[in-house]
Amino acid sequence: KYAWESAVFAALYSVCEENATFFSGGAKGSQGDAARRLVDTMKLIKEHARSLEPVISGFAAVYHHYDFDPHIPANGYRSLVKVVRCCLLHIIQKGRYITANRRSIFFRVAHNAGEMEAYCNALCQLRALLYLAQRMLHDNSHGNLFFQDESGLSESFVREYSSMHKGCFYGRCLGFQFSPGIRPCLQTIAIGLVAFGENYKRHQSGIGVAASSFFTSGKYAIDPELRGAEFERITQNLDVHFWKAFWNITETEVLSSLASMTSTQVKVNRTLSVPAVPFDLPLAANHRASVTIAPPSAHIGTAPVQMRLISYDLREGQDSEALLSLARAEGGAISLSLGLKTKRLPSSPCLLIHFHGGGFVAQTSKSHEPYLKSWSQDLGVPILSVDYSLAPEAPFPRALEECFYAYCWALRNHHLLGWTGEKVCLAGDSAGGNLSVTTSMRAAAFGVRMPDGIVAVYPATLLTAYASPSRLLTLMDPLLPLSVLSRCLSAYAGADPQTETQIEKASTMSMVRRDTALLLRDFRQGASNWIHSLLDSNRASASPSTAAEAPPGATGIPLTVTVCMGVFMHAFRWERWMRCGALIPEDVNFFLSKDVDPAVSSDLFSVALPPPAVEEGLELEHPVEFPLGFEPLRSEKPSKMRLHSSPVFKDPFCSPLLAPDSMLKGLPPVHIVACALDPMLDDSVMFAKRLRNINQPVTLCVVDDLPHGFLSLSQLCSDTKEAANVCVERIRSSPSKCPLVL
């Protein structure tokens, strides 16, 4: 490994030195200016590389201490080092191309100087990120990937992000760290984004903006510097409604029809609108007792819950009058072949319930329909995808309420879905991965049947502004910049300033108490119903049989009363905790700690970087973040970005990584699929560590060289399609670990 590192840096020094010597000749005119630019760039690259070489070697010696286990080498420190290596290899490749073609009459010095300048700028910014990562090694406890506070280093990163130049990562260098097969797709998205941003608010409809953007996109395709500058401006300045509009382009009639024609054809693709009415579900511990599932009501009042049923084969119940009465007016619900008496298969023993991604603010099941159709065919099971209400109009906990209601409705109405009611798995990507976990946590709190497993794909498990090494990648990620991520999360928490006019004016803590009361109201209602039903004199005859089921040594209280009182007391303690304004319950073991080997500690501190010293008596507005003599490139128009802090972010039903052990111990087996270059990678690694630490069954699979959101791109290139198949294999895993045994 160290020999490989040395060989890379040696090759870099060699190619830079050779080209700098060659172009140091006396060319004149524009060719001479471009040659001088190329020489200066080669020298600056060598300077950055000499500073980076010992840092890269130091990280390579210690980053394995932050892996989930030796067989899954993945964490934010590794990812940062990998991105730097990719940048170095691209520079070597460009340098060798220059060496091989510089004598050709077709060789363009100015073009190649621009290429090398772009990668030199990227290398400079990556050097700054590695300095911040060294600070994290210094400030974090051993094994932890997150800085433990929203102030300090987390605040410093936000401040640096706001002022650092980012356009170089969205111009010539766009997507350099990802698989070559997906780079054209990312470039198309970036060009579409900046063209869409130019025409945003000039047209009323999304398709109008899309049409205008098509005609203005050419200049961004041929001018990467202009594209990078405009991309940076858009990501830093436009609000969450812009991102909602852009991400929903794929749901326009034209694009969704094209996607539908190219995707797997299924027999059932029905959109449902389920009336918001309360119903009872039996307790998992005792089926003779039940809990009332109230309809969602937070923020926007009671309204039907929207879902989509997808099934490759027509199964029993999927064409029933009861199901058709719930259908929405979307076209193409059921294949015309039904009129030819399509063969109806028996109900499936398994059901997959899906929660889509989209940052809690955008998209529906329609955007995710192509890969869900493929999953239904590959797995041979029906899929119920929930179209939960989106922020900022419907912030937390509305989406969670609707997902839980849909899950309970599916359990109660399995006969309508072509499902026997035997096995059920929850799956979701990004925001949907968060909802898969929190829906299961809420099922445990209610005492109803738990899902048999969870498949969370690049899930967001920590919505706070805690800094981590993988989150440093938001500086360059084309799909998940920090400014966009923070706007989406703030909208979900109801903390975005642009949503204040749409949401009841309230203090932060009163808002948390209100949302928590809504979230827990059903616990108390259900507990009260159980108690009254059990104490009702008309049902007294049931008491002896219930009491007979009590285990030896029990108090004599019926099991159902014990269960419901346990849920009630848990809700009471949780609400009291929220009212007290505590940040994390006592039994949370989020920041894992263990004794550190002195040798390991020595290795870590040899790489870790303390805050730079400041001259005595010198007063600065902000602390100095980088060593003396180095300064990253700054944006010409820095934004005044501020992350909105809210106690809602620390609600375990919002950030499951902060949940107490007692809530996580009730979860079913969890299978996590993460991306090595995803800014949310550390969310997955730390959540997997937490579950393993309390002996919960968990697996972690990390795919290489793909961006966050690859599932939505799974129909566009072979690399993303293979990664989507990994998710299918997680669902179709071994019987001892996963629910769907097909």
Please characterize this protein's 3D structure.
46% of the residues lie in helices and 8% in strands. With 742 residues, it is of the alpha/beta class. It has an eight-stranded mixed β-sheet with strand order 1-4-6-5-7-8-9-10, with helices on both faces. The chain has a two-stranded antiparallel ribbon with strand order 2-3. β5, α13 and β6 (383-387) form a beta-alpha-beta unit. The radius of gyration is 28 Å and the shape is globular. Mean pLDDT is 82; it is low at 331-340, 498-519, 521-587 and 734-742. It is found in: Cell membrane; Cytoplasm, Cytosol; Lipid droplet; Membrane, Caveola.
Task: Please provide a brief summary of the model.
The protein has helices at 2-22, 29-62, 76-101, 109-139, 153-163, 183-199, 206-216, 218-222, 224-237, 240-247, 253-262, 321-324, 369-379, 398-412, 431-446, 482-493, 508-535, 543-548, 559-580, 598-607, 661-664, 681-693, 718-731, and strands spanning 268-274, 279-282, 290-293, 305-311, 348-355, 383-387, 419-429, 453-457, 670-675, 698-703. With 742 residues, the protein is of the alpha/beta class.
Rough outline: globular
Strand arrangement, major sheet: 1-4-6-5-7-8-9-10
- Helicity level: 40-55%
**Largest sheet, strands/sense/barrel:** 8 strands, mixed
In whole angstroms, the N-to-C terminal distance is 42 Å
Our count of helices gives 23
Structural class from helices and strands? Answer: alpha/beta
DSSP strand tally: 10
Pick out the low-confidence regions: 331-340, 498-519, 521-587, 734-742
Rounded mean pLDDT score: 82
Domain Hormone-sensitive lipase N-terminal: 9-319
GO molecular function: monoacylglycerol lipase activity; sterol ester esterase activity; triacylglycerol lipase activity
Family: Belongs to the 'GDXG' lipolytic enzyme family.
InterPro entries: AB_hydrolase_3 (IPR013094), AB_hydrolase_fold (IPR029058), HSL_N (IPR010468), Lipase_GDXG_HIS_AS (IPR002168)
